[in-house]
Amino acid sequence: MAKKTAILLIADGSEEMEAVITTDILRRAGIDVTVAGLDESPCVKCSRDVKICVDAKMQDAVKQNYDVVILPGGLGGSKAFSSSPEVGKLLQQQEKENRIIAAICAAPTALKAHGIAKGKQITSYPSMKDQLTDEYKYLEDTVVTDGNLITSRGPATAFAFGLAIVEKLLDKETADKVAKGMLYTN
Questions:
Q1: Selected catalytic residue, list 43, 46, 53, 105
Q2: Are 2 and 142 in contact (CB under 8 A)?
Q3: Phi, psi angle pair for 138, to nearest 5°
Q4: What is the DSSP code (8-state) at residue 127?
Q5: I need a labelling partner for 104 at 20 to 30 A (CA). Which of 3, 125, 145, 163 fits?
Q6: Tens-place pLDDT, residues 121-160
Q7: What do you get for the CA distance between the two ends of the chain, in Å?
Q8: Of the candidates 88, 91, 84, which has an alpha carbon nearest to the alpha carbon of residue 69?
Q9: What does the alpha-carbon distance between residue 147 and residue 12 come to, in Å, rounded to a whole number?
Q10: Confidence band for 66, pLDDT divided at 50, 70 and 90
């Protein structure tokens, strides 16, 4: 079986915990993760001034398909995702081909901006709720999975979010093994 692949997008203002924790969990599960920056910079300045250097620029990284596209939150990053035609095209292609899309914290607003997964169950950072309730069935669960859409609430839920992606891409056994290795208890 071919190794599963993921692309995690980041932009200035992305939430670093959500980006790093999600990437780490997927890599522990053996998933090939490409951290791709939205612009030309080799490093992105995240919401708490942590700099993350990218594996690739998005424009280069999107020349292949991925099993999952992941959007971490952070207000600045989410606004960048929402206003990017390239992100919209990537998400629309992912949805059209029935592959997984995962967004956490403020990032579900980018899904709405690009017309992704309308009518599905979704969650987000609490302050984003009012922007989403008109187009989605809003829940306040830690992680919400509806078909090939996975959403979550914020930095503290990044572990559960990453593990939900592993379970969807691989299986529950692998997710449980990764969780146990990190001493994660839910």
A1: 105
A2: no
A3: -85, 130
A4: G
A5: 3
A6: 999 999 999 999 999 999 999 999 999 999 999 999 999 9
A7: 30
A8: 91
A9: 30
A10: very high
Could you identify the residue written with the tokens 């790093």?
A: 20
| CA-based R_g, the chain, Å | 15
Report the alpha-carbon angle 181-54-45, nearest 5. Answer: 100
Q: In what order do the strands lie in the sheet with 32-37?
A: 56-57, 32-37, 5-10, 68-71, 100-104, 149-152, 143-146
What is the C-alpha to C-alpha distance for residues 52 and 134, in angstroms, rounded to an integer?
34
Closest listed residue to residue 32, CA positions, set 41, 23, 40: 23
pLDDT tens across 39-55, in order? 999 999 999 999 999 99
Q: For residues 186 and 38, give the distance between their C-alpha atoms in angstroms, rounded to a whole number.
A: 33
Which SS3 state, helix, strand or coil, does residue 111 take? helix
Q: Kindly report the number of other CB atoms within 10 A of residue 24's CB atom.
A: 16
Q: Which two tokens stand for residue 9?
A: 């997008």
Q: How many angstroms separate the CA atoms of 79 and 66, rounded?
A: 23
Confirm if 104 and 42 have CB atoms less than 8 A apart.
Answer: no
**Residue 43 among the catalytic residues:** no
Contact 38, 11 (CB under 8 A): yes
Q: Read off the tokens for 157.
A: 């839920």
Q: What is the pTM of this model?
A: 0.98
* pLDDT of 165 above 90: yes
